[in-house]
Amino acid sequence: MTELLFGTAGVPHSAKSPSTIDGIERIAELGLGCMEMEFVRGVRMGEAVAIQVGEAAARLGIELTAHAP
């Protein structure tokens, strides 16, 4: 990694909805580079949604991190 990225812990409050995909889209609109997915009470995301999240992040150039128990 050659650059420092800034982002939010979780979906931004200003996103259209509390969904991870809407959060990623809002992160891109704000000009940020990453978003932490908060799985602090367990991972509640199915495989199909995880694939969609990964595709959205890749399409928009957003790096994802995870906070998990």
Automatic annotation (TrEMBL):
InterPro entries: Xyl_isomerase-like_sf (IPR036237). This is Xylose isomerase-like TIM barrel domain-containing protein. It comes from marine sediment metagenome. The lineage of its organism: unclassified sequences, metagenomes, ecological metagenomes.
